[in-house]
Amino acid sequence: MKLEDEILNQFIGPDNSNRKQVEKLIKNVTSQLLDFLSNAEQKPTYPTFKQLDCPHFQIQEKPLSESKIHSNLQELYDLSMNSANPNYIGHMDSMPTLWSVIGDYIASAINNNLLSLEMSPFLTQLEYSLTKQFARLFGLPEASGGVMLSGGTLSNIQALLVARNIKLGIKNGNVFSLKKEPVIFTSEHSHSSIQKTGMMIGIGVENVIKIKTDENSKIDCNDLNAQIEEQLRLGKQPFAIVATAGTTVSGNIDPLKDISKIAEQNNLWLHVDAIYGGAVIFSKKHKHLITGIEQADSISFNPQKWLYISKTSSMVLFRDFNKMIDSFRISAPYMKEQNAYVNLGEINIQGTKYAEILKLWLSLQGLGKSGYGKLIEYSFHLTKIFKTEISKRPFLKLVCKTEMNILCFRGEPNYLALEKFDTWNENLQLYLLSQTDFFLSLPKYKNNLWLRAVLLNPFLTSKHIKNLFTHIDYYENTNKNR
Q1: Domain containing 343 — which CATH number?
Q2: Is residue 446 part of a domain?
Q3: What is the number of structural domains in the chain?
Q4: Tens-of-pLDDT digits for all 482 residues of the chain?
Q5: Is the residue at 413 inside a domain?
Q6: How far apart are CA 405 and CA 247, in angstroms?
Q7: Could you tell me the residue range of the domain that residue 257 belongs to?
Q8: In this structure, is residue 56 part of a structural domain?
Q9: Contact between 283 and 356 (Cβ < 8 Å)
Q10: Does some domain include residue 407?
């Protein structure tokens, strides 16, 4: 039996038998992709949603022609979110670095599995090295280190699983052996993944205790102390505090130094969710914003956001890496044991591990620390311009003090009743999207609708921002004069 060329040509022949055909296909696909990306500013930020029924994606009995596949790809481009357009400022979706895109391409092509050293001899060592370097950038000690995961939720889950096992002394994870219900403390504005973690590590969502915040959306340390005392009075067992460096909606930073002292006084694990804000470690001017993070027992951070790495790219770092290994490792008997490196799949929530690290490594080479520093500082420069534009308009207000490049604001025109403010802001978002191609998200925060801008795109300029506010003024004047 022999496979037909039609089937074999769906692979890159290791015998150099179809190289010319492969090069032609890759060139054609790349050209089509570049037509989309290189002209992103002329394409909609957010496509009109088109409902597609199940048969539209029907698995075919016979192979499709290349021209038909190209046609299907074009539909994908036409109906996808366009984060490369500078007018797309609604979410933490950054356009990826070129080296990040190339890294994804290479990682998929070589298809190494970071489950074990023998399956990824170069990449395993690379992950060990870069995660340790990031831990040191955050100020963690020499004994620190970490692992890469596919998303921030997984990073938070692994951090708090380890915290549970170490602080509660249940290396096997058996929460039923505990005499007291364990509890975690976190901000009322922390990411939903912390509640999800409570569900997944067996303590229950109700034992993720939400702490009140001040007028700037930061944890109120007085309430934190009171809640710790209350949970102890109720006979429960606190074991961790989760602080946030860059909240999802407003980009605020909890008082890390004060929280670290409370954690130390009460023998609690301190996890810092720096999924977004951790990127400021590359800015000499702004890294002071997360002072105190060096006291954390664990840190989660997503290069896929402010470091412009294509999804997915996340890491979780531990103050004492060997203690994490000891409390979390499940050996894989089908993998060869290593002396110098523990197989990453044994100390990671994920078994099969994609080479997330490759995209980050190549981007770090392409930009260096200095390049990333300039990108971070440029975002802050744009933030200052954006805040100035808001301050010029009495009908606009910020939700709280801005600390990063996330601006959460809304209109509260004095000619409208309070109950109509949400509708005004919702209609403004729709107007901007339909008439100007600006996309701002519309989260519900503190029981109201707010417009959110995330100033990530390196091609975003002051001209775009001023154009946006010209349209906001037009919308406001049109509504005021009705």
Answers
A1: 3.40.640.10
A2: no
A3: 1
A4: 899 999 999 999 999 999 999 999 999 999 999 999 999 999 999 888 889 998 999 999 999 999 999 999 999 999 999 999 999 999 999 899 999 999 999 999 999 999 999 999 999 999 999 999 999 999 999 999 999 999 999 999 999 999 999 999 998 889 989 999 999 999 999 999 999 999 999 999 999 999 999 999 999 999 999 999 999 999 999 999 999 999 999 999 999 999 999 999 999 999 999 999 999 999 999 999 999 999 999 999 999 999 999 999 999 999 999 999 999 999 877 777 777 899 999 999 999 999 999 999 999 999 999 999 999 999 999 999 999 999 999 999 999 999 999 999 999 999 999 999 999 999 999 999 999 999 999 999 989 999 999 999 999 999 999 999 999 999 999 988 77
A5: no
A6: 11
A7: 105-364
A8: no
A9: no
A10: no
Q: Which residue has the tokens 């890496």?
A: 321
